[in-house]
Amino acid sequence: MIKRALIKLIVFLALVSIVIPLLIILIWSFASSWPWPYMMPQNFSLRGIEEFFGGYSGAVNSMFTSVLVGIGTAAFAVLISIPAARAIKLYDFHGKSIVDFLLLLPVIVPATSFAMGIQVLFIRTKLNDTIFGVILAHTIVSLPYTVRIMAEVVTAIGNKYEVQAYVLGANKKDTLLKITIPLLMPGLVSAFSMAFIISMGQYFLTFLIGGGAVVTLPIRMFPYIQSGDRQIASMYSLMFILITLVVLLISDKLVRRYYNFESTYFFS
Amino acid sequence: MNKKSLVPYLMLMPAMAMLAVFIYGLFNGILQSFGLLKSAGLNKFTLEYYSETFRNGNLLNSIKVSLIISAVSSVIAVILGVVLSYLFCRTGFVNKRAYNIFKLPIVIPHIVVATLVINLFSQSGLLARLCNLLGIIGSQQEFIPMVFDEKFKGVILGYVWKEVPFIVLVVATIMSNIDGNLGEAAQNLGASPFKAFIYVTLPLCFPSIAMVFIIIFTYSFGAYELPMLLGPTFPKALPVQAYIEYTHPELAHRPYAMVLNTIMIVITIAFAIAYHFLIKKINKKVEVRAYD
Q1: What SS3 class is residue B37?
Q2: pLDDT reading at A227 higher than 60
Q3: Between chains, do A25 and B272 touch, taking CB under 8 Å as contact?
Q4: CA torsion through residues B84, B285, A106, B5, sign
């Protein structure tokens, strides 16, 4: 009995330690004055909201830039990952273990080092300071995750259904549209969500490759955190989390309208 | 299957092209660290930048600090993550709706984590206020510095907060699968739930636990955001120091930044290779045991 209660307590504490910091962000977002040593704000205001949606701060633009880059990255990464994952799981070829190792590299080697090493090439090829350049860089660091997720799905379904479709006389296009893609859908959504999350959260890579011309939300909010403006930093953080969740939910719901499946990586 | 078919290579082409860009970036940095940077008029191979950097005590400090940050945060996160995964599986919490809350930190980027840490742990943060309310401390200054401190406590806390849910998400999924099948079999054969976990489930989860450990270790070793926002002015973490050298107004100074980057690349890749061989060894052992 005591053991059970203890386990329940630990689970509860784990949840609390996730929720409390987020609640504090919510409260700070609307606090105009919250001096030491009060546990609750003395005054509330909508300064944070006004600052964010006021236009002069450029936050709304940054929000759109972030979402655009995130969706671009996710779409790009997923498109590249599908054939790559199928090649790895359905074919036997020379150099497979090298491919496996190379695909691990962008998670292992810091994006910081990559960003500093590649900036010159991006400047020379005029990709620096462009949204496309940032999408490209984000796609590279998302690939290990998206390929891995797609590979798991490919392993789970194999290619037996496609072979079956061919045997029954289906052509390539029909097999792709009616068999392969629907079967891959749960994995596609998971991989898309993962790449979107990774892209949304990038700071340093965007900072170097975007070069001040591509101002995503993290770039916009960095100075506020640095200068210690807690209300504005918290409001940006809050909006960041909300936007990410909204985009993930919409993409999940959209896909579920057309395809029926149980669970993905993030939503169960 | 036909090993000579070109099809898989064609399918891998786009992904490999992207990885080629990544590798080009790394090599470019490594070459510059040896003094090969044409645009700055440098084109003679030299180890000078390395020897000079290593003679400078600041650098060794940076390496040490970064290794400590990532080792401490990753070990704490993995232990907490594995214990929580076990408890979540045991209690069936993984299937509850509230479990989704635990996935939230995955979507929260490190710069937001920095905000959380400042709000909660700085000397005017809520924890300090709570200590003040309870009479443990009398003023802000009495609260142990946890942010901008030389021990990087805030940075480590931030990483742990962000990484534990990531570990749980990976490990709990695998654990609940194994626990349901083989763990149950072990229990049917007379093992206690705890013994079944220690001798059956945990060893089978080990490859994925090692994998997430490598990922979070190398990430926290090379990431810029948290040590930049929550670290002290001195000592500086390796990635932060590297960027400072990188922004030096003189292009001829760039090799110094690349020396630091090369050190990060070498250390992280060494970890990846060690992981690769470790997994191979474990897989072999498991196979041998299976045939005994």
Answers
A1: strand
A2: yes
A3: no
A4: negative
Q: What single string gives the DSSP state of each residue in A92-155?
A: --TTHHHHHHHHHHHHHS-HHHHHHHHHHHHHHTT-TTSHHHHHHHHHHHHHHHHHHHHHHHHH
Q: Which domains does chain B have, with CATH numbers?
A: 56-291 (1.10.3720.10)
**In chain A, domain spans:** 1-45, 58-258
Which CATH number is associated with domain A58-258? 1.10.3720.10
| Average confidence (pLDDT) over A50-60 | 86
**Identity of the residue in B21, B28, B39 whose CB atom sits nearest the CB atom of A140:** B21
Distance from CA of B55 to the nearest CA of A (A): 22
Q: Which residue has the tokens 């299976």?
A: B290
Whole-structure pTM value: 0.92
Cis peptide before B255 (omega within 30 of 0): no
Q: pLDDT for A141-188, tens place per residue?
A: 999 999 999 998 898 887 888 888 888 888 888 888 888 888 888 889
ipTM reported for the complex, 2 dp? 0.91
> Using the beta-carbon criterion (under 8 Å), do B18 and A222 form an inter-chain contact?
no
The pLDDT value recorded for residue B292 is: 45
For the segment A13-39, the average pLDDT, to the nearest whole number, is 92
Closest-CA residue of A relative to B245 is: A116
